[in-house]
Every structure is written in structure tokens, then in C-alpha cells.
């Protein structure tokens, strides 16, 4: 069934083609060969009929009669009539005429050329009509008279070159320039024929004797200075631009403009304006003559800068004066929609690429020169303001004044080019020796910051930098790097505010550090200022200065983010690269200082003194012997404490995951585009809009903080209150296990968790434990607190020096034994075993444990005559400054706390320090990598590394200080 359908379809297609194919024409290229022409009716190339004496015309758009036939009537297919054998076609192609020598045309195919090569002398021309148009019988020779000479085709007389004598150039008094101009030598005395005047100098390539300058420089100088030809003066200006404005030679093109470095006036109107005055850059760039007030709103007609460009050919002719498209200045390829979005007011733009040099030369085959003007309106009248150019390659002597930061040393210019492969042709060898191209273009627009001048701008500045390639590099088709950028900048008080804030906050940070150092010294029993105290001051100051630096830089960046994205009139713009470096410098300093604080924190936590006090008493068994006290409760509490040492209030991995999700997946990171508008995805028109580093920093920090606050609120206010609080559970487990925790974070200062069971014992079976808990729920037993009728179980303690001395005395033999146990392996095995057996055995460890347990229990029960303590609340100033003013030389003090003061020796109580380290590390990684995901991965890795280190050394310290074998800590 399918075959008939196919056959029918084919037959129908053939029929329809015969009917309708006249409406469908095949399209061919308009470039036809020499024997055909392009038909505008058939839209293809058709052959000219040679039998009808037709050949293709010069434009390949119609046929014409060949040179042996005259035109009878003309159209696309003209009618031609051959001339008799003894005649040739006239110059106008309408008639036949005899040649002066008939033998010249006999059996000749090209009689016209033979006829023109007859015996006419050198000063005669060939004509076939008289002055009134009458046709001669034969062609004639007519001499040129006066100061005229035959033209190149010998059909007319033309004037001789100026300053010639009888159309000859006297060699004694005149000089032939560019092989066509005869000029008196005295007219060229100020433009001597110096070898160096024709040299083009490059930065990394030897100078080149330019064929172009040798052919055109001196003739253009003469026509400009003597004949006042404007195009010649423009051509000299172009040559000055090609030589990078170098005027070190008398005969060079730039010497013409030495005395014309000013805005042009009617006194010197033929010389183009390509230079500004020396030292005038500061004045030029701060003029307030542009009256337009630009806006940032998308719908405003004044949200785009409009430029006009004057383009000149290498000969100095003005080729066009038209609106400048941003694509005209961009050597990188791209869509016009994207390229032409560069001049949006307030938005930064950057487009870079790496392309083969052949593609660049193909895209810009002709050499053009540009003068840029800003178009604005003043009282409804359109005006053009010249845009100055800062050429980085401009060289004066051995210095590059435009590469420095001193604006007073800058030399501003006006004209530039894109690609130059013309002046780099070597004179003698006639080969391309070098190509110079525009490597970097930066359009910098500075806006006025005064409130009354809002929306106005200073003159834009075009910053250019050229690069060059050798001829062999061009032949090898190397890739070249190109870039085009637009920057909008504005002076503001932000740097001054940052400086003042840094000074004031740093002073407060140092003062607060000094107070904390005082507290540290008191808690360690130091009464004098020594090296240890000063070192501690420096270490404490590191953390506070890091916080201050980061907070101020964050506030400054958030200020820029909010105002830049929210303003409709330009009150503030994005910081410059120098200002951003200033911000990043302090962020990096904050990271280094915060790292020191983290190291100090971890070291302080893994070196604390801790002891687990077992309140359990031996109980008699049925045969009147005492039942030994189980050690498993102590092991259990030690393991619980080991587990919560690295617990944090928030989860850093969830924190980083949510932050990256919001920034990268949702697209909030696109708010950092250097554009006044907010984007969640990058539109095609903004593909070349760069990301602002300041905005990226501000966004990263703000989202990080927002996610952290949400997580903190959920965990602290919901999860820990209604679901699970591991810190509070640890305190409850201590009470159930009948174990108290005695912690000394400093010499004389620490924390106490009262875990003594209100039931008197805890080493029992499950039924008894459950029964005890039920009785406690029904309030049938005493309260758990250290003070009778109180539930307060946690305290800050400030112990007497005697207690610390006895504590150290009891543990001294054990510490010595541990040191001997870790002697180097180079000690002989026999000596090592002997030392271990004599100095570090189980009996001594057990005895020390029981002595410490009894001593601390007696102290807490007020059973020691000379060592006692009292329980009280801290005064307001003590709580505010975190310092204890009372003297504890005679009696210790236990201060009521909020139930969590002991977590200061764990990560849980140092959440702010760890959080600030995470966010500073995340920000630093983002600054370097410009990638939020990579920053999050690196931050998570470092956080895990710190946790592992803290866990390993904390576990070792716990086993060492509690006199528990490390093998029981799991």
C-alpha cells in the first residue's frame, strides 16, 4: 500500500514543480567570472555571448562590447557592430577611426594598444576628436604645452607638480618626495631626512624602518605646513599616533604638535588636536562642563552614555562621523546585543578573549584612527565633549609617565587606532616585521559625589594599552589576549569612615583585651606584668582585632550593596580596585589574627585540668564485707564528656550547604553583578557584566549570617528546649552516676558540676535507678544542688592557692611517671623497663586517684579546716567584665552561673569564636577563588580538621588528667 502512494507523490511533485517553479529561483553568488555577468532578474550569473562580440563589464553587472566593436544600442545584452579591418574603436566606444599607421592594425587582435604605441613623442597625447567633438579621420598626436605633461594613459594633459621647471625637478635645489612631489630643499629644512624619523619603536621588538613613514611622512609634512592641507595635517597626526607620540627626532611626525598641545583654536585650525598640555591632566579630568544628569532607572532615557566617533583614514580623510557603538571599540567577537550594553550608567562591563592574530587582522583589514566625543544636551542643544585618552605605552625618554599613579605626570592624548599592520612593514625587505594591536581598553567614568551635583559626571577617560607581535609570530598565528572594560567610579567618604572606625574600634579592642588579660593574670595567680602576661595580651588582642576588622569591612560592604542596588540617583558607586584591595587587606589580616585565636583556644582546651569525683561509698554485703565501688560509672561520664567536647551549637556543614544552595542554586549570587539592577540569572545583555568583588563579599557574608541565625534560633530555641539538650543531659547523667566534675581551666579558676546523687548511691540495678527517678519526679527526695534546697548544679569557682598546690602535689608523681613512660626509643630496653616498674605502676596511679578523690570530696563537703569556700552571686561589674575582684587567698568562692559556664572548655561554649572563624575563612576563600562552592568545601574541610585535632588531643588530655586509661575512651 505504501508504493503507490510514493509514486503518486513523486508524479504530483513533478507536476507542481512545472507549474510553480518559476517563482522559486536558485540563488548564486554575485561574484561572476570575466566571461559572465550577474542578472538581477534571474539572480544568477549568465554568460556573455562572444559570437555577438560581448564581454563582461568591469562591474560584472552587464555585458559590454569588446574593444574591436562599437555599441549600437545598450542594455543587458547590447548590440555591437565590428569596426572595419583598417579601423579601431574610439576612446568613447561609439565610433570607429583609423590608426595613424595602418600597418599597425593589420592582422592584430589588439589594435587599440598598437595604435597607442605609435611614434608620438613623450610630451604628446593621443586624441581621436577635435576640441568641438568632431571625429578625426585618423588618431593624432597633440603636444602638451606650458607647465603640463601627458597623463599616465596619454589621453589628456595634466599640470606638472609644484616647484618643477618644465615638469622636471632640479636636483640641485629641489628634492623628490614620495616619488611624486618636487619640493625646494629650503622648504624642508625644519624636517630633515633623519634615519630615526622613520623608525617605529616597540617595547619588546627592535625598532623598524617603516616603509609607510618613508613613503608619506615628508610629503605630508610639506603639504600640511606649506600648503595648509587639512587632510595632510590629519595624516601627520595619524603617523604621530602610530609612533606612540614619540617626538625624539627633529624630522619625526610628532614634532609638528610640540607647540600645539592645546585645545584647537582658529589660529591653528589646520593642525589636528591630538595632545593635551603637559601637566594638564588633573585639570582636564576634573572639569564640570558636562551638564547632563544621568539616572540609574531602567526606564530613564539618561541611563546610557552616548558617544560619537570621528574616523579617519590613514591618508587623513574623515571617513565618518557617527554614533559610537561599544562594539566599535571591542576587538573580541560577540553578539551585538551583548557588546552594545557596555555604556549603561552605573554598571561595570568587562569582555575579554583570546583569539588568533589572523582572526584579528581579518576583522580589521584597514587602518582607521578614532577621535571619541561624549554627546550630551545642554538646554536642548546637542553638544560633543572630547574624551581624553591615557595611553599606557606613551614613552618620554626612558620613562612611562602614564603607567604611574601620579596624575600630574600624565600626558593625555586624543587619537588612537585599533590594529596597525601598515607601519610595521620593513622598508628595505618589504615584509611585515611587526603588528601592534590594542590589547586593553578601559573606559573610566567618574561621577560627581556632591549632593547638588547628583547624576553629573566628569569627562570620561579612555585608558589604552597596546601590545605587539613579531612578523614570525604573526605567521605562526599566535593567540592574543584582548579585553574591554567600563568602570564607573565616585569619590565618597567611605574610606575615611573605615579609617576612623578602625582606629576607634581597635582602641576599644585593645582596652577590652587588657581587661581580659588582667582577668587571666588573676586567675593564674600572677600579680606582676611579665613576659607571659604581655604574650597573653597579644594573643587575646588578636581575636578582638580580627572581629573588629571583619565587622567593619562587612558593614562597609553591606552599605555599598544596599545603596548601590537600591538607589535611583547615583549617591554611591562600586569601589575601585584599590579600594577593594584595602578591604581585602583587612579581611586577610582578620583571618590571620582569627587563626591565632583558634590555635590558642584549642590549645587552652586540650591542656585543662579535669578530675571526676566519685561520691559513691562502699556498701556492706551479706557476709559483712564491703562491696568494691564500680569504676564503670566514672568511665561512662568520661566518655560522655569526651563526646561533647567538640559539640557545637550549630552544624557547620548544614550551614555551608544551605549557604551555597541560596547563593548558587537559587541564584542570589547574581545580585553581585556590577549592575544597579538585581538578577537571579544572568540575561544575555549582561553576559559581559563582571561580578563586583565587594558585592560578592557582602552577599556571601550576609547570607552566611542569615542562615546561621535561622539555624541558631531553631537549635537553641526549639531543638534544645523541646527535643534534646546534650549539655543539660550530661549534667543529669552526672547526677544519676553520682559523679561530680572538677575542672580547672586556669591555675586558680575553673568550673564545677555537682553530680552527687540525692539518693546516696548509684551503683545499683536498673529497677533501683528507675525507682529513684520516679521518686525524684514526685519531689520525694532532696534537691540536686550543691546548696541545700537548691537545684543549682554548675558553678564557676575561684579556688585558694593552697588547693591548687595540693592538687599539683598529688598529681606530680603521676606526671613524672608519664614523662618517663615516653622516653625515646634510644634508651635501652632494660633501663626502660626498670624505670617503668619503679616509677610508674598501677598501685601508685590507683593510690593517687583515691587521694585526689578524697581530698576534693572533703573540700566540697567543707571538711577541711584550712581550706573552705563560700557560694555567692557575682557582682554586676564582675559579670560585665568577666573578672573576679575578691581575694581568695584564705577561702575559695563558688559563683552561681547560668548552668552552662563549664562549656567554655568545650566548643559548645565558644560558638561565637568558631562561627567568626568559619565566616572569615569562607570569605577569604571566596576572595581568592571567586567561587562560593569551592569556598564552602574548603571551609568544611578546615572545620573538620580542627574538630579532629581537638578530639584527638582532648581525648588524650582527658585520659591523662582524670587518671583513666585512654583505651576505655571510645
Compose a concise summary of this entry.
By secondary structure, the protein is an alpha+beta fold.
Describe this structure in words.
- It is a single chain.
- The relative contact order is 0.06.
- 37% of the residues lie in helices and 19% in strands.
- The protein is built from 22 helices and 36 strands.
- Strands 19, 22, 23, 25, 26, 27 and 28 form a seven-stranded mixed β-sheet that branches.
- The longest helix is centred in the middle third of the chain and has 36 residues, at 531-566.
- It is elongated and about 160 Å long.
- The chain is α+β, with helices and mostly antiparallel strands.
Write the layout of secondary structure elements.
Elements: H1 2-20, E1 36-39, E2 44-47, E3 54-56, E4 63-65, E5 69-73, E6 79-82, E7 87-89, E8 96-98, H2 111-116, E9 124-129, E10 135-143, E11 148-150, E12 157-159, E13 174-177, E14 181-184, E15 199-200, E16 208-209, H3 211-225, H4 230-242, H5 281-284, E17 306-313, E18 318-323, H6 336-339, E19 349-356, H7 357-363, E20 368-378, E21 381-386, E22 389-391, E23 412-413, E24 415-417, E25 419-420, E26 434-447, E27 461-470, H8 471-475, E28 479-490, H9 494-523, H10 531-566, H11 577-605, E29 609-614, E30 619-620, E31 626-627, H12 632-644, H13 652-665, H14 693-723, H15 726-737, E32 739-744, E33 749-753, H16 766-777, E34 794-798, H17 801-821, H18 829-839, H19 842-860, E35 869-872, H20 876-881, E36 892-896, H21 911-929, H22 932-962
Parallel strand pairs: 22-27, 26-28, 35-36
Antiparallel strand pairs: 1-2, 3-4, 5-6, 7-8, 9-10, 11-12, 13-14, 15-16, 17-18, 17-20, 19-28, 20-21, 20-24, 22-23, 25-26, 26-27, 29-32, 30-31, 32-33, 33-34, 34-36
Helix pairs in contact: 3-4, 9-10, 10-11, 10-14, 11-21, 12-15, 13-14, 13-22, 14-21, 17-18, 17-19, 21-22
Amino acid at each position: 500500500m505504501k508504493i503507490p502512494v510514493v509514486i503518486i507523490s513523486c508524479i504530483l511533485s513533478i507536476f507542481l514543480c512545472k507549474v510553480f517553479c518559476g517563482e522559486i529561483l536558485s540563488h548564486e553568488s554575485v561574484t561572476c567570472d570575466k566571461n559572465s555577468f550577474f542578472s538581477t532578474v534571474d539572480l544568477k550569473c549568465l554568460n556573455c555571448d562572444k559570437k555577438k562580440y560581448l564581454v563582461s563589464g568591469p562591474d560584472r553587472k552587464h555585458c559590454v562590447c569588446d574593444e574591436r566593436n562599437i555599441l549600437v544600442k545598450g542594455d543587458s545584452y547590447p548590440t555591437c557592430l565590428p569596426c572595419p579591418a583598417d579601423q579601431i574603436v574610439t576612446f568613447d566606444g561609439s565610433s570607429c577611426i583609423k590608426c595613424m599607421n595602418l600597418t599597425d592594425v593589420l592582422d592584430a587582435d589588439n589594435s587599440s594598444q598598437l595604435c597607442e604605441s605609435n611614434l608620438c613623442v613623450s610630451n604628446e597625447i593621443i586624441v581621436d576628436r577635435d576640441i568641438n567633438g568632431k571625429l578625426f579621420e585618423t588618431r593624432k598626436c597633440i603636444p602638451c604645452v606650458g607647465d603640463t605633461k601627458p597623463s599616465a594613459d596619454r589621453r589628456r594633459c595634466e599640470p606638472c607638480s609644484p616647484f618643477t621647471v618644465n615638469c622636471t625637478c632640479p636636483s640641485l635645489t629641489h628634492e623628490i618626495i614620495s616619488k611624486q612631489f618636487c619640493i625646494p630643499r629650503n622648504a624642508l629644512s625644519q624636517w630633515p631626512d633623519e634615519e630615526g624619523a622613520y623608525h617605529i619603536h616597540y617595547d619588546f621588538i627592535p625598532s623598524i624602518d617603516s616603509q609607510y613613514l618613508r613613503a608619506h611622512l615628508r610629503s605630508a609634512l610639506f603639504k600640511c605646513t606649506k600648503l595648509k592641507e587639512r587632510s595632510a595635517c590629519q595624516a601627520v597626526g595619524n603617523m604621530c599616533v602610530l609612533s606612540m607620540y614619540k617626538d625624539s627626532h627633529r624630522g619625526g611626525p610628532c614634532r609638528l604638535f610640540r607647540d600645539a598641545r592645546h585645545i584647537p583654536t582658529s589660529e591653528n585650525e589646520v593642525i589636528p588636536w591630538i595632545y593635551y598640555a603637559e601637566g594638564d591632566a588633573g585639570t582636564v579630568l576634573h572639569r564640570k562642563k558636562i551638564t547632563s544628569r544621568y539616572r540609574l532607572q531602567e526606564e530613564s532615557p539618561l541611563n546610557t552614555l552616548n558617544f560619537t566617533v570621528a574616523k579617519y583614514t590613514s591618508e587623513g580623510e574623515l571617513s565618518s562621523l557617527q554614533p559610537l557603538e561599544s562594539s566599535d571599540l571591542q576587538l573580541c567577537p560577540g553578539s551585538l546585543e551583548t557588546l552594545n550594553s557596555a555604556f549603561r550608567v552605573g554598571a561595570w562591563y568587562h569582555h575579554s578573549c583570546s583569539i588568533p592574530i589572523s582572526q584579528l587582522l581579518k576583522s580589521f583589514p584597514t587602518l582607521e584612527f578614532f577621535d571619541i566625543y561624549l554627546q550630551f544636551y545642554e538646554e536642548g542643544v546637542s553638544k560633543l565633549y572630547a574624551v581624553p585618552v591615557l595611553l599606557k605605552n606613551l614613552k618620554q625618554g626612558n620613562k612611562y609617565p602614564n603607567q604611574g599613579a601620579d596624575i600630574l605626570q600624565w600626558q593625555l592624548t586624543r587619537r588612537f587606532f585599533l590594529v596597525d599592520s601598515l607601519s610595521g612593514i620593513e622598508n628595505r625587505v618589504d615584509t611585515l616585521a611587526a603588528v601592534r594591536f590594542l590589547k586593553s581598553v578601559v573606559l573610566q567614568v567618574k561621577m560627581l559625589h556632591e549632593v547638588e551635583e547628583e547624576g553629573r559626571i566628569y569627562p570620561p577617560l579612555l585608558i589604552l594599552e597596546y601590545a605587539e607581535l613579531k612578523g614570525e609570530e604573526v605567521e605562526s598565528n599566535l593567540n592574543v589576549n584582548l579585553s574591554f572594560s567600563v568602570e564607573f567610579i565616585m569619590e565618597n567618604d567611605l574610606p575615611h569612615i573605615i579609617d576612623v572606625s578602625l582606629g576607634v574600634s581597635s582602641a576599644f579592642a585593645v582596652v577590652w583585651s587588657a581587661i581580659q588579660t588582667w582577668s587571666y593574670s588573676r586567675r593564674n595567680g600572677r600579680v606582676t606584668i611579665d613576659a607571659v602576661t604581655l604574650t597573653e595580651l597579644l594573643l587575646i588582642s588578636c581575636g578582638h582585632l580580627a572581629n573588629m576588622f571583619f565587622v567593619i569591612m562587612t558593614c562597609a560592604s553591606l552599605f555599598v550593596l544596599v545603596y548601590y542596588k537600591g538607589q535611583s540617583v547615583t549617591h554611591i558607586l562600586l569601589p575601585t580596585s584599590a579600594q577593594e584591595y584595602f578591604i581585602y587587606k583587612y579581611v586577610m589580616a582578620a583571618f590571620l589574627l582569627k587563626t591565632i585565636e583558634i590555635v590558642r583556644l584549642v590549645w587552652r582546651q586540650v591542656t585543662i585540668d579535669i578530675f571526676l569525683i566519685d561520691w559513691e561509698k562502699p556498701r556492706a554485703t551479706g557476709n559483712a564485707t564491703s562491696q568494691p565501688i564500680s569504676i564503670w560509672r566514672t568511665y561512662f561520664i568520661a566518655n560522655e564528656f569526651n563526646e561533647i567536647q567538640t559539640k557545637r551549637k550549630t552544624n557547620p556543614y548544614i550551614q555551608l550547604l544551605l549557604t551555597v544552595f541560596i547563593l548558587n542554586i537559587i541564584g542570589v549570587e547574581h545580585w553581585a553583578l556590577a549592575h544597579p539592577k538585581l538578577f537571579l540569572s544572568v540575561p544575555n545583555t549582561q553576559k559581559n557584566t563582571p561580578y563586583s568583588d565587594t558585592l560578592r563579599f557582602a552577599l556571601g557574608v550576609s547570607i552566611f549570617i542569615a542562615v546561621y541565625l535561622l539555624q541558631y534560633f531553631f537549635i537553641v530555641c526549639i531543638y534544645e528546649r523541646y527535643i534534646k539538650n546534650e549539655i543539660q543531659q550530661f549534667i543529669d547523667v552526672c547526677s544519676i552516676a553520682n559523679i561530680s566534675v572538677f575542672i580547672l581551666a586556669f591555675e586558680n579558676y575553673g568550673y564545677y558540676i555537682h553530680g552527687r546523687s540525692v539518693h546516696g548511691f548509684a551503683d545499683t540495678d536498673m529497677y533501683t535507678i528507675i525507682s529513684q527517678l520516679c521518686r525524684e519526679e514526685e519531689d520525694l527526695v532532696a534537691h540536686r544542688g550543691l546548696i541545700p534546697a537548691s537545684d543549682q548544679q554548675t558553678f564557676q569557682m575561684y579556688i585558694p592557692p593552697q588547693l591548687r598546690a595540693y592538687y599539683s602535689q598529688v598529681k606530680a608523681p603521676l606526671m613524672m611517671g608519664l614523662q618517663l613512660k615516653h622516653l625515646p626509643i634510644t634508651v635501652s630496653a632494660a633501663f626502660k623497663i626498670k624505670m617503668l616498674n619503679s616509677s610508674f605502676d598501677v598501685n601508685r596511679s590507683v593510690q593517687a586517684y583515691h587521694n585526689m578523690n578524697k581530698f576534693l570530696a572533703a573540700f566540697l563537703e567543707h571538711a577541711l579546716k584550712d581550706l573552705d569556700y563560700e557560694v555567692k552571686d557575682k557582682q554586676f561589674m564582675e559579670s560585665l567584665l568577666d573578672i573576679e575582684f575578691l581575694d581568695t587567698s584564705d577561702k575559695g568562692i563558688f559563683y552561681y552561673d547560668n548552668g552552662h559556664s563549664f562549656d567554655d572548655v568545650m566548643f559548645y561554649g565558644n560558638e561565637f569564636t568558631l562561627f567568626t572563624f568559619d565566616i572569615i575563612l569562607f570569605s577569604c576563600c571566596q576572595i581568592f577563588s571567586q567561587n562560593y562552592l569551592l569556598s564552602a568545601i574548603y571551609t568544611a574541610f578546615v572545620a573538620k580538621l580542627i574538630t579532629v585535632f581537638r578530639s584527638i588531643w582532648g581525648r588524650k588530655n582527658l585520659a591523662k588528667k582524670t587518671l583513666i586509661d585512654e583505651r576505655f575512651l571510645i
